[in-house]
């Protein structure tokens, strides 16, 4: 697999890989490889199991014999479904590889068959089969991260930020110079700051149930405080740091639309169309992802997340 592009931050090179499985219908999943000249390179989100071989090949080529830190933002199939397989393939090439995950997510990488895979089959249907069933990772290969932990990569470091909301086991990673200099920071957001399309600026939440919108907003505020120059979400590509501010405001429009949907009894599709009609950022992404039934499903699930969250709030009221 050749990178779609390589970002040169001065203190690190970041390869952007397309980890979208064949048959998805639109360009959707990114995996990132970070090389700062140190004793290890990092892979941020491997993508699903079905594209693990290509990601592992790219990681091995970048590593050139060095250790590989496989870091997942969370354990959902499109982000970490390939993590165990990538680690196994790297080990088969004689490379040391370790998987790092949020403490609440790490057990699901060791035993995906108990809860992770059945839940994915129920929520995603045939899309889960397209992603592929994740392999179990040996317990000794998986390490739990700490909030604020720093991972040394030579001239750069990755700082871990636990960012719940999209999922309780979500974490984001800020790439910054190890020297503490003022060079541009790159923030790997996973699903904590929405989906962003660099081609036309399309932007929308990735908020399937069980969304915790209060936590999601707080995580956004924490990420904004880091002052990243650019953000690198797993869906769909790299954007300016201002995406965080745009997305924070966008959440208000989505929450209001979800309230109206509850009051009027609208379907998720009707709610999505209403949001797209009033929010240009959502509309652009809707027009792109809507070309694929799986892409449309991702947006529909985001609507369900907001509606489900408001229902739970009412139930506690």
UniProtKB/TrEMBL annotation:
PANTHER family in alphabetical order: ACYL-COENZYME A THIOESTERASE MBLAC2, METALLO-BETA-LACTAMASE DOMAIN-CONTAINING
Coiled coil: none
Metallo-beta-lactamase domain ranges (all copies): 28-235
One Pfam entry name: Lactamase_B
Domain of life: Archaea
CDD domains attached to this UniProt entry: ST1585-like_MBL-fold
Gene3D superfamilies per record: Ribonuclease Z/Hydroxyacylglutathione hydrolase-like (3.60.15.10)
Listed InterPro entries: Metallo-B-lactamas, NDM-1-like, RibonucZ/Hydroxyglut_hydro, ST1585_MBL-fold
Transmembrane regions: none
Protein name: Metallo-beta-lactamase domain-containing protein
Native organism: Pyrodictium occultum
